[in-house]
Amino acid sequence: MSGQDKTRATVDIYGQPYKIVGTESTSHIRLVASIVDDKMREISKKNPYLDINKLAVLTAVNIVNEYVKLKEEYEMLEKKLHQKEE
């Protein structure tokens, strides 16, 4: 897709519809929304009295934590690969 192509998708996250516009494919947008929805439901089961705002923030914190760990692991593996190449 070129920088100007926009994909639009309506997704359901935690029982609420959202219209998402982006440059990724519709299937990618739906996958991302599904992961957010799953994580919100997982956290809500453990903390059923959280209001929606706190639930959303905790979901974001959890997902970013997972991202940072994966990024660090990727960078470590990339460093090991470059060391083997030398």
UniProtKB/TrEMBL annotation:
<keyword id="KW-0132">Cell division</keyword>
<comment type="similarity">
    <text>Belongs to the ZapA family. Type 2 subfamily.</text>
</comment>
<dbReference type="GO" id="GO:0032153">
    <property type="term" value="C:cell division site"/>
</dbReference>
<dbReference type="InterPro" id="IPR036192">
    <property type="entry name" value="Cell_div_ZapA-like_sf"/>
</dbReference>
<comment type="function">
    <text>Activator of cell division through the inhibition of FtsZ GTPase activity, therefore promoting FtsZ assembly into bundles of protofilaments necessary for the formation of the division Z ring. It is recruited early at mid-cell but it is not essential for cell division.</text>
</comment>
<comment type="subunit">
    <text>Homodimer. Interacts with FtsZ.</text>
</comment>
<dbReference type="InterPro" id="IPR023688">
    <property type="entry name" value="Cell_div_ZapA_firmicutes"/>
</dbReference>
<dbReference type="GO" id="GO:0005829">
    <property type="term" value="C:cytosol"/>
</dbReference>
<dbReference type="GO" id="GO:0030428">
    <property type="term" value="C:cell septum"/>
</dbReference>
<keyword id="KW-0131">Cell cycle</keyword>
<protein>
    <recommendedName>
        <fullName>Cell division protein ZapA</fullName>
    </recommendedName>
</protein>
<keyword id="KW-0717">Septation</keyword>
<keyword id="KW-0963">Cytoplasm</keyword>
<dbReference type="GO" id="GO:0000921">
    <property type="term" value="P:septin ring assembly"/>
</dbReference>
<dbReference type="GO" id="GO:0000917">
    <property type="term" value="P:division septum assembly"/>
</dbReference>
<dbReference type="InterPro" id="IPR053712">
    <property type="entry name" value="Bac_CellDiv_Activator"/>
</dbReference>
<dbReference type="GO" id="GO:0005886">
    <property type="term" value="C:plasma membrane"/>
</dbReference>
<dbReference type="Pfam" id="PF05164">
    <property type="entry name" value="ZapA"/>
</dbReference>
<keyword id="KW-0175">Coiled coil</keyword>
<dbReference type="InterPro" id="IPR007838">
    <property type="entry name" value="Cell_div_ZapA-like"/>
</dbReference>
<dbReference type="GO" id="GO:0043093">
    <property type="term" value="P:FtsZ-dependent cytokinesis"/>
</dbReference>
